[in-house]
Known about the structure:
Aldehyde Oxidoreductase, domain 4, 26% helix, 15% strand, 3 strands, three-stranded mixed beta sheet, 3 helices
Amino acid sequence: MKGTDKTLDFGACALQAYIAHKFNGQDLEPGLKEGAFYDPTNFTFPAGVHIAEVEVDPDTGVTKVVNWTAVDDFGVVINPMIVEGQVHGGIAQGIGQAMLEGVVYDKEGQLVTASYMDYCMPRADDLPSFTVGMTVTACPSNPLGIKGCGEAGAIAAPPALINAITDAVGHEDVAMPATPKVV
């Protein structure tokens, strides 16, 4: 209690709130509860740009991602290392979607890519080192000025990569996944 030498830790306070006989004759339900709902006035809108640099072997269609630069605006960033890791993971996921991951069925409708032996996902040697940067424009619709970051890499990577491939090969008829056969 402010201004006195009396104290009560939170556990003891919670215990007292659950002792029903303390509320004798009062119209109170025992317990310690609090509820709140935060409904911001607007959404958050992160933004960014991802640039993929690729080398395509014209004879085989094999595409190698040689460089990746990403600059995103996530508003005020609380933990830059975690955010950068999320961007890295999202880019890896997006590269997999754009170049490697494809569900294949045979002519009878049987799934032939039912295991990771057949379904190709990105591995470390499929990925370049990423150059990741951030700029900060505080979000006006929440008190912390933060924006979302979890999906930025995964959303930006497929179009950045397919655009790089179409630019390298000189036409826009490249479907995902951009396997060597497709390229």
